[in-house]
Amino acid sequence: MSHRILHAALAAALLVVARPVVAQSGEGIAIGAMAPAVTVANVSGKSVRVMPTLGRPMLIEFWATWCEFCERLEPTMKATYSKYGDKVQFAAIAVNVNQSPRRVAKHVKDRSLKYPVYYDDSGKATDAYDVAATSFVVIIDKKGRVAYTGVGDKQDLDAAIRGVL
């Protein structure tokens, strides 16, 4: 999906009141696909390549400062990072819809986020992972393959990570 289509879909989603959705395998990038490396910006604006390290699982969340589901998922993300941060790579990638690197950096500081946070300034990361909505989480196994995808604030990230350790 191109980032233009994602922008339109996300904008439309803001106009609709939806109940939380949890989707495992079936949203975004295919389960079993090799996880792509993506280039994003860190909160200081420097380009960073985000890619799984073979032999170590990875969790990637695609989120936005304005996303209510992301806000409700944040305590789960923090707890998951606290529990697994030494065993699993983490990357929270802010989509480039209705926000800026400055707004993302402020959000990270205000929320005291400890896991690595990036900004998808070009929209190419969201395209590479076929992200259809914010609060989209991808868990990658030790071989670099997508093992889990989910969207919404009610994801059992603990169980998903235990499945790839």
List the helices and strands and how they pair.
Elements: H1 3-14, E1 38-42, E2 47-50, E3 58-63, H2 68-84, E4 89-94, H3 101-111, E5 117-119, H4 124-128, E6 136-140, E7 146-151, H5 157-162
Parallel strand pairs: 3-4, 4-5
Antiparallel strand pairs: 1-2, 1-5, 3-6, 6-7
Q: Tags for this entry?
A:
165 residues; alpha/beta; Glutaredoxin; seven-stranded mixed β-sheet; globular; disordered N terminus
Protein described:
The chain is an alpha/beta fold. It has a single domain, classed as Glutaredoxin (3-Layer(aba) Sandwich), CATH 3.40.30.10. 31% of the residues lie in helices and 21% in strands. The chain has helices spanning 3-14, 68-84, 101-111, 124-128, 157-162, and strands spanning 38-42, 47-50, 58-63, 89-94, 117-119, 136-140, 146-151. Strand 6 (136-140) and strand 7 form a beta hairpin. The radius of gyration is 14 Å and the shape is globular. The termini are far apart.
Instruction: Give the low-pLDDT segments.
Output: 3-23
Going by helix content, strand content and strand pairing, the class is alpha/beta
Q: CATH topology, which one? A: Glutaredoxin
Measure the end-to-end span.
30 Å
- Second-tier CATH architecture: 3-Layer(aba) Sandwich
- Give the integer mean of the pLDDT values: 87
Sheet bearing the most strands, described? 7 strands, mixed
The string of secondary-structure elements, in order, is HEEEHEHEHEEH
Helix content: 25-40%
As laid out across the biggest beta sheet, the strand order is: 2-1-5-4-3-6-7
**What is the approximate shape?**
globular
Please compute the radius of gyration using only Cα atoms. Answer: 14 Å
Strand content: 15-25%
At the fourth level of CATH, the homologous superfamily is Glutaredoxin
- Taken together, the total number of domains comes to 1
What's the helix count? 5
